[in-house]
Amino acid sequence: MLLFEDIVRAEKIVSKHTVTTPVVQSQTLSKAVGKRIYLKLENQQITGSFKIRGAINAISNLNPAQKKAGVVALSTGNHGRGLAFAANLMKIRCIICMSKVVPSNKIEGIKALGAEVRLIGTNQDEAQLEADRLSIEEGMTYVSPFDNIDVIAGQGTLGLEIHRQIPELDFAFVPLSGGGLICGVAKALKELNRNLKVIGVSMDKGAAMYESQKAGKPIFVKEEKSLADALTGGIGLDNKYTFELTKQLVDEIVLVSEEEIADGIHYAYWHESQIVEGAGAVAIASLLNKQFKPTGPSIALMCGRNINMDEHFTLISAKS
Ligand SMILES: *Cc1c(COP(=O)(O)O)cnc(C)c1O
Q1: Cα 166 to middle of ligand 1, angstroms
Q2: Distance between CA atoms of 303 and 24, rounded to whole angstroms?
Q3: Does 175 contact ligand 1 (Cβ within 6 A)?
Q4: What is the distance in A from the centroid of ligand 1 to the CA of 230?
């Protein structure tokens, strides 16, 4: 069960170690959409994404024995960075498992944040086996990037922050992959504003939560490469929390194409002076493609900035 009170409690610890990221009103998007559009600049969060919110809350809720044994995760991206940072902050052992084919800059990035990196095998599944072994044999706690109630409550602190910054919102556009982010944010925002609607945004290739909701149960969806790399991956056939919570809390899911994501990154840079990764651009992209037209003031969550800067340079150099 995800309780509003869990999110309130999470904020007490999460806010000690994170920054309150700004909210700005976008003049150009407001004009394009015809309603007031705000942007939550969570791309400016420490480590470059919101993931440290959930990681800090998950670690702080471990019991003393679990804290002693440490945490383990499987992620080359923002969850790995967030968990490494949070564990280091709280003096907890942290091992991030990845396959040997992961690029060296990603490995160094995680190590620089203080985590141990274990390179195993040549694919994600083999790395998963090592993470499972560490949790069974060494008692380390496996921290899922999304399907963990403390992680969800931690991400929900973003919703509390948004409501404090802009109380009069009708719609929130939130990036959606495994659903930890959107479930936490929706729980917080809807508790504080019963009329608010939450719109999930995923990429149109391999949108696991979207396809699973359509099917009425968690299903396997083939993973495809996307500019929004932080949104790729499945929701788990044994999904415990986020499938049901998404069904309850998310009013609609819209999809954006690769071209629209690229345009979103371009737009964020040239109109809002913001550097965002693909996943950080999908909320803007969905407002621009007008698949779902908000009828009142709305916020678009820009959730991350961890993009290869050479790739970013290429994307923003394209003529619009
Ligand atoms: C993890 C992540 C997401 C997706 O979050 P879920 O909780 O899996 O839905 C979106 N954007 C960024 C930048 C992320 O790191």
Answers
A1: 22
A2: 14
A3: yes
A4: 6
Beta bridge partners of 201: 175, 254
Q: Are residues 154 and 177 in the same domain?
A: yes
Amino acid making up residue 193: N
Report whether 307 contacts 275 (CB < 8 A): yes
- pTM (whole model) above 0.85: yes
For 222-248, the pLDDT digits (tens) are 989 999 999 999 999 999 999 999 999
Going from the Cα of 176 to the center of ligand 1, the distance in angstroms, rounded, reads 6
CATH code where residue 81 lies: 3.40.50.1100
Digit-coded pLDDT (tens) for 7-25: 999 999 999 999 999 999 9
Q: Which atom of ligand 1 is nearest to the CA of 181?
A: 7
Same domain? For 138 and 152 the reply is: no
Supply the Cα-derived Rg of the chain in whole angstroms: 18
196 and 310 co-located in one domain: yes
> d(Cα 117, Cα 76) in Å, to the nearest integer?
10
